[in-house]
From TrEMBL:
InterPro entries: Amidase/PGRP_sf, Amidase_domain, NAMLAA_amidase_2. It comes from the Bacteria. This is 1,6-anhydro-N-acetylmuramyl-L-alanine amidase AmpD. Its cofactor is Zn(2+). It is an enzyme of class 3 (hydrolase). Its EC number is 3.5.1.28. Belongs to the N-acetylmuramoyl-L-alanine amidase 2 family. Residues 16-166 form the N-acetylmuramoyl-L-alanine amidase domain. The keyword DNA-binding does not apply. It catalyses: Hydrolyzes the link between N-acetylmuramoyl residues and L-amino acid residues in certain cell-wall glycopeptides. Transmembrane segments: none annotated.
Length: 181
């Protein structure tokens, strides 16, 4: 069994207080993001701290704008392939912000958010693609309304605000790996 009450059993659990109940219980969209704190720095504890609401904003001058921010994602895949989960898939994580998919707004209501530790311009690692493929396959099996056609980047649902996962994300590689998995 890959999931227990919406928690992926293969992920390190690092619970965030930044979530609430889904208004309809629907899970029908997967959103791929990227994050690094500070920008372009990897392997540091700051992403966990941000999502847990305990980031020391004095730790880096670039964190000043993050003071009081309440944000989370369901998952983070680190550069080494480690999978971390912050919010149960059954709940609404606060990852998409102002967003639209087709005619529907508020994508957090019906989506799962996966953050990749990275930037728009730096290539993601083989370990990240491998873990992302395995996690996506598990999610597709667990939530039948999710399909390969309903996987988008943050840039697709918030195009005037967001650019992630960026041009460095190899959509062809990822989607081909899903088909071959």
């Amino acid at each position: 069994m890959d999931f227990d009450a919406g928690w992926f059993t293969s992920a390190r659990r690092c619970e965030s207080p930044h979530f609430n109940r889904r208004p309809f219980g629907e899970i029908s969209l997967l959103v791929i993001h990227n994050i690094s704190l500070p920008a372009g720095c990897f392997g540091l504890p700051y992403i966990d701290q941000l999502f847990q609401g305990c980031l020391d904003t004095s730790a880096d001058e670039s964190f000043a704008d993050l003071a009081g921010l309440q944000v989370s994602a369901h998952f983070l895949i680190r550069r080494d392939g480690e999978c971390v989960q912050y919010v149960s898939c059954e709940d609404r994580a606060w990852h998409a912000g102002v967003s639209r998919y087709g005619e529907r707004e508020n994508c957090n209501d019906f989506s799962i958010g996966i953050e990749l530790e990275g930037t728009d311009t730096e290539p993601y690692t083989a370990a990240q693609y491998q873990q992302l493929t395995a996690l996506t396959q598990a999610l597709l099996a667990q939530y039948p309304a999710l399909t390969a056609e309903r996987i988008v980047g943050h840039c697709d649902i918030a195009p005037m605000r967001k650019t992630d996962p960026g041009p460095s994300f190899d959509w062809q590689r990822y989607l081909a790996a899903l088909r071959d998995f």
